[in-house]
Amino acid sequence: MNKMRKMLKAVSRVNIRAISKPEMLYPDKKNANGQAALLLHGYTGSPHDMRYLGNRLRDAGYLVSIPRLPGHGTTRQDFNQTRAEDWLRRSLDAWLELQTFGLEQNLAGLSMGGILAAILAATFVPRRVVLAAPALMVNNTVLPWTPILKYAVKEQEHPTVQDYEDPDLDYLSHEYWSVDNIQGAAELYRLQQLGLSLLGKIQSPLLTIISEKDATVPVAVAPLIQSRIASTEKETLILKESKHVVVNDCEKETVADAIIAWFGKPLS
């Protein structure tokens, strides 16, 4: 009861920022290819990160769903009321909702969304899968300790906060990215461990996209994934310049082209 009351209090004054609203993108009827794509954003991110890719897929004939994970794109207080189960449940529901259109379904996820995509790929059988900078491995030695640390430290402020011209991005930067949320990181770690344990159940064709300049996810995650999944068709795209949000960074056109080509390949 107390947890539910805290949740109600947290959301009572919440407004979803314009760039964080979920999207369902419908292709032109003449261009529709009979396929759908579910795109999952990352930890403390929002549907904004996936919108360029979503629009490109829509233009290529795909029905595209970009859900907003609970606690994201609102307030830090709202975020603090959510757990790994909430993010996973929303992802599962988004997949099931997309099924009602009766189309072949593809799946892509960024960072934590990559973990969620891996879990879904092990649970269902997507037509094709893309894991973009998947946080199944991270350059953060503190992450495994967060399930313990969260009882002593709730969050740590960053010494500097990046400002943005866009007011919504600037809000998200100060509300979410200005601190390391230890409790949230502990939930991320729980998801990471579940995702790693399920890699061997993935049979769908899978493309991993990583970048040499990603300071969050090391390139070593790609061979880890390749060695553990059961898929017989698996490829890796290594970018040279992008930072962590590879689907919406300086090489986003290359990434979108690669994903459209991957989803469009006939199944063997």
Could you explain the architecture of this structure?
The chain is α/β, with parallel strands linked by helices. It has one domain: Alpha/Beta hydrolase fold, catalytic domain (Rossmann fold). Helix content is 39%, strand content 16%. The strands form 2 sheets. It has a 7-stranded mixed beta sheet, with helices on both faces. The chain has a two-stranded antiparallel sheet with strand order 6-7.
Query: C-alpha Rg, in Å?
Result: 18 Å
- CATH class wording: Alpha Beta
Which whole number gives the mean pLDDT?
A: 96
The number of helical segments is 10
**CATH topology value:** Rossmann fold
Beta fraction:
15-25%
Going by CATH, the homologous superfamily would be Alpha/Beta hydrolase fold, catalytic domain
State the helicity in percent bands: 25-40%
Unreliably modeled segments = none
The gross shape turns out to be globular
* Number of E-state strands: 9
- Total number of distinct structural domains: 1
How many angstroms separate the termini? 51 Å
How do the strands line up in the largest sheet?
1-3-2-4-5-8-9
CATH architecture: 3-Layer(aba) Sandwich
Structural class from helices and strands?
A: alpha/beta
Strand/helix succession: HEEHEHHEHEHEHEHEHEH
Secondary structure: elements and pairs:
Blueprint: H1 2-11, E1 23-25, E2 35-40, H2 48-59, E3 63-66, H3 76-79, H4 84-99, E4 104-110, H5 112-123, E5 129-132, H6 146-149, E6 155-157, H7 167-175, E7 179-181, H8 182-198, E8 206-211, H9 221-228, E9 234-239, H10 252-264
Parallel strand pairs: 2-3, 2-4, 4-5, 5-8, 8-9
Antiparallel strand pairs: 1-3, 6-7
Helix pairs in contact: 2-10, 5-8
